[in-house]
Design brief:
Helices cover 13% and strands 28% of the residues. Strands 1, 2, 3, 4, 5, 6, 10, 11, 12 and 13 form a ten-stranded mixed beta sheet that branches. Strands 8-7-9 form a three-stranded antiparallel beta sheet, with no helix packed on it. It has 240 residues and is α+β, with helices and mostly antiparallel strands. The termini are far apart. The radius of gyration is 17 Å and the shape is globular. It is built from three helices and 13 strands; from the N terminus they run ααββββββββββββαβ.
Length: 240
């Protein structure tokens, strides 16, 4: 009976329907095994998986997993989220300005925000109006946060915005080591502009949910984030 219930849960998942909070005792679906193995290879014991159904879909469901005693468990309720306005890219095909989130699993870096400090164990930086993230592929500082007055980059993103989108955020270490010009920059987890409004390529959610996420993440567990299209579940996920 339990196996039948788990099978039904997984069918609901792959069909794109939301379901109740999985218990920490529930078995992770077998189809997720390659994703867990990729996290294991990087030494990560906290893994966030943002699932969409297909190319171009922007609404995502985020699952937060944690590994303890060599076993992966669901750690938090699923989170409603959004990805890039053109969905998740095909493997290795994320490009600057394409409106897509990158396919794959990537380390989660520092947190950032507008306040002096926030409730998180992750390394935190308070951003100011002088902090920018360079998205100019021709710049030697491409995909880096620098001071506005110290760069000649022709294109960049201000980290202290006039809205609340970057009030709380996390850096996704996509295309950061090494940096490949033109392959995409400034991939963050942040607050959505309005409910279910897609991003330029980031993962976004409500302020309440990202607040809880920041409390959950532990840098000692090397947290990672996966952007996962269910129609590409058979594709090998390689951290980049």
């Amino acid at each position: 009976m339990k196996q039948a219930i788990l099978s039904m849960i997984f069918i609901l998942l792959i069909s794109g329907l939301s379901f109740a909070m999985p218990s920490s005792e529930d078995k992770i679906p077998d189809a997720w095994l390659p994703l867990l193995q990729e996290a294991d290879k990087s030494g990560s014991s906290q893994l966030l998986l943002a699932f969409t159904n297909s190319a171009g879909q922007t609404r995502a469901e985020l699952f937060c997993l944690e590994k303890a005693s060599d076993t992966w468990r669901f750690a938090m309720p699923p989170i409603e989220a959004v990805v890039g306005r053109k969905g998740i890219a095909e493997p290795l095909l994320k490009r600057e300005g394409d409106g897509k989130s990158p396919h794959g699993i990537f380390p989660i870096g520092n947190s950032f925000g507008y306040e002096v400090q926030v409730d998180t164990r992750m390394p935190y930086k308070q951003v100011s109006t002088d902090d920018i993230w360079v998205d100019d592929p021709a710049s030697s500082e491409y995909n880096r946060m620098v001071k506005k007055g110290a760069t000649q980059a022709k294109s960049f993103e201000e980290m202290k915005r006039k809205d609340e989108m970057y009030k709380l955020g996390l850096v996704v270490e996509y295309n950061t080591n090494p940096v490949t010009p033109g392959h995409g920059s400034a991939i963050f987890v942040h607050i959505w502009k309005k409910p279910f409004s897609p991003t330029a390529g980031c993962l976004a959610m409500s302020e309440e949910d990202i607040t809880n996420l920041l409390k959950f993440l532990d840098p000692g567990k090397k947290p990672s984030l996966g952007f996962v299209r269910k129609d590409l579940m058979g594709i090998n996920f390689t951290s980049r």
